[in-house]
Design brief:
Helices cover about 30% and strands about 15% of the residues. The chain is an alpha/beta fold. Helix 5 (about 185-195) links the parallel strand 8 and strand 9. The chain has helices at about 15-25, 40-45, 65-70, 80-95, 185-195, 220-225, 230-235, 255-270, 285-300, 305-315, 330-335, 380-385, 395-400, 435-455, 465-480, 510-520, and strands spanning about 1-10, 30, 100, 105-110, 115-120, 125-135, 155-160, 175-180, 200-205, 210, 325-330, 340-345, 350-355, 355-360, 365, 370, 385-390, 420, 460, 525-529. Strands 1, 2, 3, 4, 5, 6, 17 and 18 form an 8-stranded mixed beta sheet that branches.
């Protein structure tokens, strides 16, 4: 049986950086990836319009300053092919692929207390041992197929946005149904509409959106950014959002109606994260939030010609930005097209999928293709699908049955030498992901180095530290409006999943300081032997 210092699961941004850090220290590391190549999120999500909602110049590694200067992003917000091209370049330049086994899922891992090692098994029957197991499996990597009666009876083509065919799908001249209007639906629907003969959009819940204002990269702006790249990177590392947008300097309730309208006009003209992070009370005050939500709805009404459709597209069942805020490119204008139809599932719910299409309580919508834009089993799904067995024979999925518990979003009591990158209980999806990934990878690497220098072989979160951290994360989340939304942040999109608000809300800057303090104090909250 092969023995390694570490096993890394996943070859996206986090798995690649983790591999680079550990290999640089001379450790023996084996990586596994379910896909046929590197890329993670950007390998799998190839649906039409797939694009990052963080700006290109900040959504990249900060540890490669020469590449920062050399790499040219063609757009303000990069599409999937450009991001995958970047990741492929990094993997090739740093010679990382040779340390991963592709087309291979890790199916099980159990901790052996006598040797303080993980015994890791793959779906192909391979067995190996490693001192450390690092789950770099991503927050949005387990596609959610909805449980709709008759889903297997459909005789046309069906696709999930998170599992899009790599050679694309020709939708020209076809009748297409899109089920779901979250981020992937909002990105893909305009592109699908441009091809389809007829498009039926099935909406259960309208989502708040802000304009992306995507455009070709401005050469002067790019050069100005690159002239200050080191400064911008450090600012992002020390920010709430993991980005360089201005943050927390305006109190909405201090502004009169005219002042607020002028302020929102300004931030909506900037688009993206600029519309969310300037405001101190947006996610703590119902009154402040309602003022912004009304502005947002008026913005939608100005873009959609049919007043009835416009009202259906206005999110009214959850506070603004308490679900993942979507950055759209001509999404609302798509519903001005005569061949695009919005079906309100609250009024006419789906009863079943039949051979010819989608049947609602009102009628059968006959289609040739169904696109499921139904999201992911977020935050925990990729972790609980693996048979992860701790010191007492307990499975992680059983320990997390009532919601995920861990310490710092990094370690779990009863599962020594296991690290999760951007796991629940960390800022992850509430930030620019690469910034959070780098913070976690660097912390894990430095922890393993610290242990090696002291001859330590085992590290495990203590139950007391874990309980206090979970309580703190919950209290922080409950002090905001976030838990009021039936979002994937709380697992509401997965039937039977425990309703727990999973991300850490206080910002990457505060979280980084907390993690650094734990390390500086000799990894308080962990038992080390």
């Amino acid at each position: 049986m092969n023995k390694y210092d570490a096993v890394i699961v996943g070859a996206g941004f986090s798995g690649l950086y983790m591999m680079h850090r550990l290999r640089e220290r001379g450790l023996s590391v084996q990586g596994f990836e379910a896909g046929s190549d590197v890329g993670g999120t950007w390998y799998w999500n190839r649906y039409p319009g797939a694009r990052c909602d963080s700006e290109s110049l900040s959504y990249s590694y900060s540890f490669l300053p020469e590449l920062d200067q050399a790499w040219h992003w063609p757009e303000r917000y990069s599409e999937q092919p450009e991001i995958l091209k970047y990741i492929n370049h990094v993997a090739t330049t740093l010679a990382l692929r040779e340390h991963f086994e592709f087309n291979t899922r890790v199916s099980s891992a159990s901790f052996e207390t006598t040797t303080n090692t993980w015994c890791v098994g793959t779906e192909h029957g391979e067995q190996l041992t490693a001192r450390f197991l690092i789950m770099a499996t991503g927050c949005l990597s387990m596609p959610n197929w909805p449980k709709i009666a008759g889903i297997d009876d459909f005789r046309g083509e069906r696709f999930h946005t998170g599992l899009w065919p790599h050679d694309g799908v020709d939708l020209r001249g076809k009748r297409v149904a899109v089920i779901g209007t979250g981020s992937t639906g909002i990105q893909s629907i305009p592109r699908i509409a441009s091809q389809a003969e007829e498009l039926f959009v099935f909406q259960r819940t309208a989502n708040h959106c802000v304009p992306a204002h995507n455009s070709p990269m401005d050469a002067e702006a790019e050069q100005a950014y690159k002239s200050r790249y080191a400064e911008m990177r450090e600012a992002a590392r020390r920010s709430m959002s993991g980005d360089v947008v201005r943050e927390a300097y305006i109190n909405i309730m201090d502004l009169g109606d005219a002042e607020l309208h002028e302020e929102l006009d300004r931030t909506w003209a900037l688009g993206g994260f600029y519309t969310q992070y300037p405001y101190t009370d947006l996610l703590t005050s119902h009154e402040a939030n309602e003022r912004v939500a009304e502005y947002s709805c008026n913005h939608i009404r100005s873009r959609v010609r049919d007043p009835r459709v416009a009202e259906l597209l206005c999110a009214k069942d959850h506070p603004f930005a308490t679900k993942r805020l979507c950055a759209d490119s001509f999404y609302f204008e798509t519903f001005n097209e005569s061949h695009v139809h919005l079906i309100d599932l609250k009024a006419t719910p789906i009863h079943a999928i039949e051979a010819a299409g989608v049947r609602t309580s009102e009628r059968l919508h006959e289609v040739d293709v169904i696109v499921f834009a139904t999201g992911f089993d977020a935050m925990t799904g990729a972790l609980t699908r693996v048979d992860l067995q701790g010191t007492q024979g307990q499975m992680l999925r059983e320990v997390w049955q009532q919601g995920p518990v861990n310490y710092l979003g990094l370690g779990v009591a009863g599962f020594p030498n296991l690290f999760t990158v951007t796991g629940p209980g960390s800022p992850s999806v509430l930030t620019t992901m690469v910034s959070s990934i780098e913070q976690h990878v660097e912390w894990i690497d430095e922890c393993m180095d610290w242990m090696g220098n002291r001859g330590a072989t085992r590290i495990e979160a203590t139950p007391d530290a874990q309980t206090k951290w979970v309580d703190y994360v919950n209290q922080s989340g409950n002090a905001t409006l976030f838990p009021e939304a039936n979002s994937w942040y709380v697992g509401a999109n997965i039937p039977g999943k425990a309703r727990v608000f999973m991300p850490y809300v206080n910002g990457l800057n505060i979280y980084r300081d907390q993690c650094d303090a734990v390390a500086d104090e000799g990894y308080t909250g962990f038992e080390i032997s």
